[in-house]
Amino acid sequence: MLQITEGSHAVAEIAKFCRPQVVAAYPITPQTHIVEALADMVANCELDAEYITVESEFSALSACLGASAAGSRVYSATTSQGLALMFEVCFNVAGMRQPIVMSIVNRSLGAPLSIWNDQQDSISLRDSGWLQFYAEDNQEATDLHMIAYKVAEDHDVLLPAFVCFDGFILSHTYEPVDMPSQEEVDAYLPAFTPYHRLDAKDPISMGMYATPDYYMEFRYELERAMQRSIDVIKRAGAEFAEQFGRDYSALVESYRLDDAEIAFIAMGSICGTVKDAIDEMRDAGKKVGLAKIRTYRPFPTEELTRALAGVSTVAVLDKNISLGSGGAVGTEVKAMLAGSGITVLDYIIALGGRDVRKRDIAAIVDLADKGVGDMFYGLRTEVL
Amino acid sequence: MALNVGCAARPGKARKNKTGSWRVFRPVFESEQCTKCGMCALVCPEGCVIETEEGEFVPDYEYCKGCGICAEVCPKKGIRMEQEEK
Ligand code: SF4
Ligand code: SF4
């Protein structure tokens, strides 16, 4: 049913419909509205789940890990410093192959303290073995939670998943969301079937010690699961399209890329602005398009390469910076397109909540035209 | 061999995990000097020093890691640590 709702509340609602048996989270801006709403739902018996209150994010994800190992479907949500505090547990969750789904309401990392949006938090966990989905709007944020559970819990995958959506820009914005009913979600997402679980009558330990003789093989298994997840994501997206009419079967969404000379690559809410700017530039005869990355992990190398065939210049918008190197997405795209003859220019943009407007997108096209890139876009002149 | 997903394992793994391969020094028990005080069996962190039916104390080399604690505590200095030839 179409409803006007705040992004956080839409995500809380869909989390409820995914029927988590355990929720453990610690409130942090801008994620707070999600976990407040879920706490209310549990208190009001709208959601039959154990809501574990904890004293930190480290404990939150540790409780989730234990609950998932015991065979429960688990949900959590965090952002920024909260995710940073979960760093160690994130690696353990993936290594123990527990399919926890966690919303990341993207926010910058301190210092300096900032509660505003960029994607540094989830990007910094890119090597942890979690699938990473990025949503452009609240509808996509809502839908991706269902897909994330389906993919994560698939026995060919068994990896945890972040569903990332931009703090404030989406989380605190009211927009129409077509919210499925409980029955519709149940029809799409079957009950969780754990691969194996902790059971006092048939005890096992998980995440055991691996000597140098075996550790590398376990990392190889994680990488293989990531690669297998590509087909599972496509399948889950196609099934979703069949039931709900919204198609997420591609890991990369192409927007006006046919005959484009300059292609943007971006993730998350900025894609909406980029699409509008592209429409205006197309009206003015400029051949620009967008390849929107929906899954950053696994990185959609094959789809992205195909989507970009024929363009001469790629402008990557990175709402993060791998200090000492460049934007994380830009670096990967450069490696991916090495030798292709396509010029790849990287733009660090919108860090710490700096606003991006259509005119900024048009200005970046002008820079890309001149071959000027690999830079922070929109810096204050006093630092130059 | 397929690895267990998530490096999961059933209990009893320590018995299956033959830690003897870690050994650099091998304890050699000189039974002539032994007074059968049992200290070596008590302190061995692997629990792998066994008292035989004849009352002899012998290490199980399948598990002995060669830490040398038994040699250190033996009041008769009756345990020699010899470098393994590998
Ligand atoms: S060397 Fe260490 S492990 Fe081996 S028997 Fe002596 S105490 Fe036990
Ligand atoms: S500690 Fe030495 S003397 Fe005592 S039982 Fe062991 S080998 Fe024999």
Automatic annotation (TrEMBL), chain A:
Enzyme class: oxidoreductase
EC number(s) per entry: 1.2.7.1
Pfam families tied to this protein: PFOR_II, POR_N
Stretches of the chain forming a coiled coil according to its record: none
Xref: Gene3D superfamilies: 3.40.50.920, 3.40.50.970
Domain Pyruvate flavodoxin/ferredoxin oxidoreductase pyrimidine binding: from-to ranges: 15-233
Residue ranges occupied by any Pyruvate:ferredoxin oxidoreductase core domain in the UniProt entry: 260-361
Highest taxon above the source species: Archaea
Keywords assigned: Oxidoreductase, Pyruvate
Catalytic activity: 2 oxidized [2Fe-2S]-[ferredoxin] + pyruvate + CoA = 2 reduced [2Fe-2S]-[ferredoxin] + acetyl-CoA + CO2 + H(+)
NCBIfam families assigned to the protein according to its UniProt record, in alphabetical order: PorA_Arch
PANTHER family: PYRUVATE-FLAVODOXIN OXIDOREDUCTASE-RELATED (PTHR32154:SF0)
Assembly with partners or alone: Heterotetramer of one alpha, one beta, one delta and one gamma chain.
Name of the protein in its database record: Pyruvate synthase subunit PorA
Species assigned in the record: Methanoculleus frigidifontis
UniProtKB/TrEMBL annotation, chain B:
InterPro entries: 4Fe4S_Fe-S-bd, 4Fe4S_Fe_S_CS, PorD_KorD
Ranges of residues in domain 4Fe-4S ferredoxin-type: 25-54, 55-84
Keyword annotations from UniProtKB, A to Z: 4Fe-4S, Electron transport, Iron, Iron-sulfur, Metal-binding, Repeat, Transport
Source species of the chain: Methanoculleus frigidifontis
One protein family per Pfam: Fer4_9
Subunit field text: Heterotetramer of one alpha, one beta, one delta and one gamma chain.
Needed cofactors: [4Fe-4S] cluster
Protein name: 4Fe-4S dicluster domain-containing protein
Domain of life: Archaea
Database matches in NCBIfam families: PorD_KorD (TIGR02179)
Listed PANTHER family: PYRUVATE SYNTHASE SUBUNIT PORD
